[in-house]
């Protein structure tokens, strides 16, 4: 059994990474957020899988991501921002290159309150391209839609992985 889960949020600037974390913690949408949230730890007894869960707000260089930073990575984009959706594709590559072991990825389309249509049509081809992408979810930090679900999916991806979890150097 794992003793804890470490979730990292990455994504283009202003897609709502910090807001998602603050919304989860305070159960309301913060009008103003700092650039980066402090690392938070959710105690085991209030998480669905009963494992202490750390959530890390990442703003910076994907080159610095490594095994000690994350067990699962949420790649956040904004459903009303085409560029942030296109940029999603660059993260799996950067992340996969930085890791020896497979780390599950979750695609997170934030700001669903701002659009009527879903971004799935654009996202599905990306999902099909990378087997490391565990799942995708559309959510809104603003109206709290799918926020707890998102963090539950992330926990689940670590604790109950669906894909093969292997380290290339151990494969022989
Ligand atoms: P950086 O730290 O600069 O990379 O940005 P970020 O990804 O942490 O985004 P942040 O949480 O700072 O949010 C950027 C802006 O989007 C803010 O003005 C938020 O209020 C707004 N925002 C975040 N989430 C939502 C959402 O779900 N819906 C709407 N309508 N606005 C949102
Ligand atoms: Mg931020």
UniProtKB/TrEMBL annotation:
Subcellular location, record wording: Mitochondrion outer membrane
Source organism of the structure: Amphiprion percula
Source organism superkingdom: Eukaryota
Family label: Belongs to the mitochondrial Rho GTPase family.
Protein's name according to its UniProt entry: Mitochondrial Rho GTPase
Role of this protein: Atypical mitochondrial nucleoside-triphosphatase (NTPase) involved in mitochondrial trafficking. Probably involved in control of anterograde transport of mitochondria and their subcellular distribution. Can hydrolyze GTP, ATP and UTP.
Residues of the full protein shown: 1 to 172 of 611
Domain Miro span(s) in chain numbering: 2-160
